[in-house]
Amino acid sequence: MLDRRSPIPLYHQLSQSLLAQITNGEFKPGDTLPPERELTQAFDVSRITVRRAIDELENEGYVRRVQGKGTFVAPPRIQRGILKLTSFSEDIAALGMEPGSKLLTLRREPAQRRVARELHLGEEATVWFVERLRFADSDVIGLNLSYLSLPADVTLTREELEEEPSLWKVLAEKGIVLSEADKVIGAIAAEDWHAELLDVRERTPLLQVEGVAYSDHGEPIEFHQIITRADRYKYHLHVTR
């Protein structure tokens, strides 16, 4: 029941009531929420209140609307810690899901000015550019852009990157172990090409992580940009005082 004497808006109370039913398993991923008309009658609120409650759940990634079909409970968001250096593949596997990768681009190219600065490279340096879509089971989760400063005798092939979803594992097999990183986490709005690749609408909020990963010898190896769906991904931080 909703508390009409509470200063908390009715739409937020309703969204939290529905969220409780989602988190306790009454509504499971893929289930359809009751139609707006049923919710207005069940909670004795206006259709505008119901729509604002659903909007709130959708914005937080708990449900998704499908035009002409209804509102569905979304799969749970993937939680990733940020105090320990782990790869995407390791995190997905630890959650009991199958990590996947689709290689979009692999090439050597001149280092852009920012890439050269982040990797401490001189003028006319070249890097490996690796662009991949990342999956958890069969669901697209994010886009990974990696710029790699590798020794001259180390090469990458499409075959090995298409066979092994973890780039860091491929590098480790070549004797390059990444052991620490600097990262900055921010939010961006999906542009048209993000929307197409990640199956979201334009201007949808996305999470972006930019950072540099270092070898166990302290050498900057990888400058990366990781763009993930905010409705499927979140970062977890544990702090003490």
Describe this structure in words.
With 241 residues, this protein is α+β, with helices and mostly antiparallel strands. The protein has 2 domains: 10-73, Winged helix-like DNA-binding domain superfamily/Winged helix DNA-binding domain (Arc Repressor Mutant, subunit A); 78-236, Chorismate lyase, CATH 3.40.1410. 28% of the residues lie in helices and 34% in strands. It has 8 helices and 10 strands. The chain has helices at residues 10-23, 36-43, 47-59, 88-94, 113-118, 158-163, 167-173, 192-198, and strands spanning 63-66, 70-73, 78-81, 99-110, 126-136, 139-148, 178-189, 205-215, 220-229, 233-236. The strands form 3 sheets. Strands 4-5-6-9-8-7 form a 6-stranded antiparallel β-sheet. Strands 1-2 form a two-stranded antiparallel sheet. Strands 3-10 form a two-stranded parallel ribbon. A hairpin with a 3-residue loop joins strand 1 and strand 2 (70-73). The longest helix has 14 residues, at 10-23.
Features of the shown structure:
two-stranded antiparallel ribbon, 2 domains, six-stranded antiparallel β-sheet, about 240 residues, alpha+beta, Chorismate lyase, Arc Repressor Mutant, subunit A
**Named CATH architecture of the largest domain:** 3-Layer(aba) Sandwich
CATH classification class of the largest domain: Alpha Beta
- Please indicate the percent range of residues in DSSP E strands (runs of 2 or more): 25-35%
Helix content: 25-40%
Largest sheet entry:
6 strands, antiparallel
Per the principal axes of the C-alpha atoms, what is the gross shape? Answer: elongated
The span between the termini is 39 Å
Order of adjacent strands in the largest pleated sheet: 4-5-6-9-8-7
Radius of gyration: 22 Å
Number of domains: 2
Mean pLDDT: 88
The CATH homologous superfamily of the largest domain is named: Chorismate lyase-like
How many H/I helices?
Answer: 8
Number of strands: 10
| Unreliable parts | none
Order of helices and strands: HHHEEEHEHEEHHEHEEE
Indicate the multimeric state.
single chain
CATH topology of the largest domain: Chorismate lyase
The chain-level structural class is alpha+beta
